[in-house]
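Customer escalation, tier 2.

The customer says the design service returned an amino acid string that "doesn't look like it belongs to this structure." They asked us to rerun it and document both sides in this ticket. The original structure tokens are below, unchanged.
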């Protein structure tokens, strides 16, 4: 019988799975449900329950006697994490798990280039496949609500439309390898402080319009095979097992047919886990959280306690069958799919992709007197000051930490590109090593470091200050939020002192978050460079040298001061909450929606980013003046590269409702397109928007509502740089 079962799978595999040009978006054979049911009929209750929870830190058991494989997963989203020990968080110290580090997802979002997102997914998916992972835990699409959130660098910014457009190709790319993406953290995990228990109160409207759309796109368009619940609560219930979020919205409304995986230690209750949509429990410690060292898998909520309820018939067996059905479906898509490729890793193509994304995501924020690019053929003396010029940024940050085979530091990148220059490096300050959950101060002499930096600045033609945040606790790191909006480790003071000595100073910020810039008016240039992975230094040198023209745009607003950010303007109950509850009082007005609507100028706006060339947007028009609900709105314009170098511009289309019956943001991003133009070239751009996408979520009917009347279409190259405002009507 058992033997027969195995042979059956083999026989069916060959006839049912095509061997080339395989469409992985829907790799399931026609009769999959019957097939899964036939497998379920062979499983004991114990075996079924076992499949619903971890057997180690990153795997779940198979059914050995039937040849059903284990499922192995790894953290992403920026690369495949190093191997972790079976039963604790220590690294296993394998020597074959060095990988390519791709740029942080904030950088990917800043490219505004969905094609690159697909390249990212395909390539990181290949590495996951080579490392024999069935699920890659990423990408993350929690919305950027506050610049203090320690994990913003792992997400795709503040705008639900941008995040939706960027997440879908990533997922498709990963899954093309027969590796499941696991979209996280579903949902409202918008801060790290108190993440394990904080209860979020937010309106339905903000939930549907701001926080859910990227997850919805991931499920409906990206067809993600798994999703990860979050740590926090929503309306008094943990999001990992949540009647409304998981059963109703995710599984019923969006028809999600994949596996809901808990975050590590986010499961809290057997009944809720069983009945409110959780399929696979991971990372629970004996203390019921993730913090204890012992995991004791049999005592998981979805282990023995679940088995008992099933045996006692307090929970219907169909409940576990549904979970196993989903898990088996994921397995047919991944480790029981014999046609998936073998993957590859650390190949030159992966580095090229990492470098392209890094280069396209860098955002030029300020460029006085054409400070950038810096000519590499000149015999300049350049002082490179700042700890981030040499600090590895793939290390630290929490679960997204990577064991990179290569990480080119900014200093190394500059040294290899600026061979004619004399480069003097000085740290200027030191922050101490990265540790998870604690701050270890540096024991270096800060005064001495500063003096060396000032001496370097004094004898140089140009100063490049390479600073920002890092991947240590209370910086850009999981498990905690930043405690200040200003740059840490005395950098603001140091920049001032450098400026007093050498005015020809540019700042290169390495961070995943907005920071205050009190020195902004005094520096010549500012570049936002994110965490860029293996090719960080080369990508930075590409942009600084002018080998590549910057074309990244900010995926979130930089407020002047913290209080100008919507969440912070409502005080502590809004952020961070009172440790039990928090209220998203800004409602739908997140990010630029807040700045625009309340007329609070940002330091740098969403969608903003400079180029070394200039562009002109002209001939902006809509195809019609009046539309109905089922129409498409076609907005077109001409873009001309009017400057002296080849480059790329992002045409952004925002739409706002004139006189609405509900509160509205002044405008919202509804379409964008990146165009590459050689100097002098003109191209036509068309952005197509479905009229129904102008709907708001109407709480009075719990559904989307397309209001009739006048709308304004804003076309420009940043949320605060609009070339023209047109009027249209919906009838
Ligand atoms: C994080 C997840 C991660 C998991 C496994 C959790 O603490 O929130 O993003 O995938 O750990 O490392």
């Amino acid at each position: 019988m058992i033997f027969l079962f195995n042979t059956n799978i083999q026989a069916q595999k060959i006839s049912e799975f095509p061997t080339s040009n395989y469409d992985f978006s829907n790799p399931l054979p026609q009769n999959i449900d019957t097939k899964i049911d036939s497998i379920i009929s062979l499983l004991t209750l114990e075996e079924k329950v076992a499949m619903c929870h971890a057997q180690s830190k990153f795997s779940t058991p198979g059914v050995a006697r039937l040849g059903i494989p284990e499922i192995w997963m790894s953290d992403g989203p920026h690369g495949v994490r190093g191997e972790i020990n079976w039963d604790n968080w220590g690294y296993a110290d394998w020597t074959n798990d060095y990988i390519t580090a791709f740029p942080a997802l904030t950088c990917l979002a800043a490219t505004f280039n969905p094609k690159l997102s697909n390249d990212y997914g395909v390539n990181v998916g290949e590495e996951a496949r080579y490392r024999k992972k069935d699920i890659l835990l990423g990408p993350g699409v929690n919305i950027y609500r506050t610049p203090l959130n320690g994990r913003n660098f792992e997400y795709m910014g503040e705008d639900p439309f941008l995040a939706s457009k960027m997440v879908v190709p990533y997922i498709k790319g990963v899954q093309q390898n027969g590796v499941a993406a696991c979209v996280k953290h579903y949902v409202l995990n918008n801060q790290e402080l108190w993440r394990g228990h904080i209860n979020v109160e937010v309106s339905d409207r903000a939930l549907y319009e701001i926080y859910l759309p990227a997850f919805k796109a991931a499920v409906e368009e990206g067809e993600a095979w798994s999703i990860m619940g979050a740590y926090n609560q929503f309306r008094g219930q943990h999001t990992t097992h949540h009647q409304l979020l998981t059963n109703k919205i995710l599984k019923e409304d969006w028809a999600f047919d994949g596996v809901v995986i808990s975050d590590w230690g986010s499961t809290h209750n057997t009944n809720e886990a069983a009945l409110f949509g959780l399929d696979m429990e991971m990372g629970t410690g004996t203390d019921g959280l993730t913090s204890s060292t012992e995991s004791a898998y049999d005592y998981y909520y979805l282990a023995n306690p679940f088995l008992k309820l099933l045996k006692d018939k307090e929970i219907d067996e169909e409940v576990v069958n549904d979970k196993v059905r989903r898990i088996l479906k994921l397995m047919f898509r991944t480790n029981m799919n014999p046609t998936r490729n073998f993957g590859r890793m650390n190949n030159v193509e992966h580095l090229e992709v990492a470098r392209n994304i890094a280069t396209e995501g860098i955002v030029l924020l300020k460029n006085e007197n054409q400070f950038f690019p810096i000519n590499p053929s000149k015999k300049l003396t350049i002082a490179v000051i700042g700890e981030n010029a040499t600090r590895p940024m793939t290390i630290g940050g929490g679960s997204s930490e990577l064991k990179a085979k290569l990480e080119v530091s900014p200093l190394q990148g500059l040294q290899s590109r600026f061979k004619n220059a004399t480069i003097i490096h000085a740290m200027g300050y030191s922050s101490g090593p990265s540790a998870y959950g604690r701050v270890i101060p540096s024991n270096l002499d800060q005064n001495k470091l500063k003096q060396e930096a000032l001496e370097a600045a004094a004898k140089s033609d140009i100063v490049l200050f390479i600073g920002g945040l890092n991947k240590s606790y209370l910086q850009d790191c999981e498990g905690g939020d930043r405690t200040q909006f200003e740059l840490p480790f005395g950098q603001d003071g140091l920049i001032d002192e450098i400026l007093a000595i050498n005015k020809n100073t540019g700042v290169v910020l390495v961070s995943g978050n907005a920071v205050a810039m009190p020195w902004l008016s005094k520096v010549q240039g500012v570049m936002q460079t994110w965490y860029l992975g293996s090719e960080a230094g080369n990508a930075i040198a590409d942009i600084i040298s002018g080998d590549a023209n910057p074309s990244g745009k900010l995926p979130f607003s930089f407020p002047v001061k913290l209080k100008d950010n919507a969440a912070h303007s409502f005080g502590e109950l809004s952020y961070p909450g009172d440790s039990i509850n928090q209220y998203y009082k800004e409602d739908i007005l997140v990010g630029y929606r807040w700045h625009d609507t309340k007329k609070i100028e940002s330091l740098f706006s969403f969608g903003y980013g400079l180029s070394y060339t200039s562009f002109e947007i002209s001939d902006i028009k809509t195809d019609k003046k009046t539309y109905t609900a089922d129409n498409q709105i076609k907005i077109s314009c001409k873009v001309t590269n009017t400057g002296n170098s080849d480059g790329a511009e992002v045409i952004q289309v925002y739409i706002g409702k004139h006189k609405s019956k509900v509160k509205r943001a002044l405008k919202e991003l509804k379409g964008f397109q990146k165009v590459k133009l050689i100097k002098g070239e003109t191209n036509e751009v068309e952005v197509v928007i479905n009229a129904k996408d102008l709907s708001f979520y109407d709480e009075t009917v719990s559904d989307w509502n397309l209001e009739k009347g006048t709308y304004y279409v804003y076309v420009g190259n940043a949320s605060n740089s609009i070339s023209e405002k047109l009027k249209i009507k919906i009838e």
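Tier 2 assessment: The sequence is consistent with the input. The pocket of beta-D-glucopyranose is lined by residues 75, 137, 184, 263-264, 399 (CB under 6 Å). The radius of gyration is 26 Å. Sent an explanation to the customer and offered a walkthrough call.
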